[in-house]
Amino acid sequence: MLDLDRLRALNAIAEYGSVSAAAEVLGITTSAVSQQIAKLERETSSRLLERSGRGVRLTDAALLLVGHAERILSLVAEAEADLEAQRGSVVGKIKVAAFATAARGIMPHVLRDIAAVHPQLTAELHECDPKVALPQVLRGDFDLAVVQDWQNSPLPFPEGLEKLHLLDDPAEVAVPSSHPLAGRSSLAFTDLAEDTWVGAPPGDICHAWLCHTLRNGGVEPRIAHFSLEYPTQLALVAAGIGVAVLPRLGRGLLEPGVVTIPVRPRLVRHIYVVWRAEAGRRPAVQAMVTALRGAVDTVGEGAGQVLVPSHQPDGAK
């Protein structure tokens, strides 16, 4: 009989391209993954991996087995969800992915509430970009993910996932308090056509979004300073060496010498929680969704922000 853990190891290698990447995703050592594959080769009397340069490639036998493994592991996950739903107990372990500002702005509230209400449930948080998190939720590497998409740059959602809209997070322009337009009640990007920008580094999803957004607003981006962290971007703005566009969630307290001004026309990002369709029956998943919905009612108020929670009675859509 084929061992499920060994099938998971092979499937992870197929998905992530290497033994080391599979080990990181599975939370075990590379040696343990190699041992699982060696045992699976003995079980199947087939060679499954071959050296390819500094990495490995799957043999034809391995590719055949992976096709079956995906279906088998999906059925096992569905059976586990059904059993957990039947028991009705919020216990065990649940893995949640969240993009950086949600991890900072929402998840501390969620994890605190989950620990208080469901002490037998262990929640594990992973900071993860939405485009990386979505396929991992679909594969079962994460149970849920908190993701974002901007109204001018929607995020594609794969089939097999369900989602719930949690809140809308508006963007604002951060300018030095000495800026000539600092007293405005709102700004269009064309008002800042001659300004230097601070933004995320090239290659990051936020950098691509900023360039796309500015160009759509009629401004050719002149990004002179790069940082992944919003506090660093705000410190650079406070120093008077650029302006930045930032969402409110997870931004934290403003640096002295920084003013934020709403963007005109209004620019928001939509924040969702997503999960595999079959996992929606799990009490642990339902408990986490409930905690997330509760958290968005308090996170804006607690951070001195005006966010817009969205509670949809019909659940996922």
UniProtKB/TrEMBL annotation:
Q: Which GO terms describe its cellular component?
A: protein-DNA complex
Keyword Transcription applies: yes
**Sorted alphabetically, which keywords does the UniProt record give?**
DNA-binding, Transcription, Transcription regulation
Give all residue intervals belonging to the HTH lysR-type domain: 2-59
Q: Does the keyword Transcription regulation apply?
A: yes
Any one Gene Ontology molecular-function term assigned to this protein's record: DNA-binding transcription factor activity
Which protein family is it in? Belongs to the LysR transcriptional regulatory family.
Listed name of the protein: Molybdate transport repressor ModE-like protein
Q: Lineage of the native species?
A: Bacteria, Bacillati, Actinomycetota, Actinomycetes, Streptosporangiales
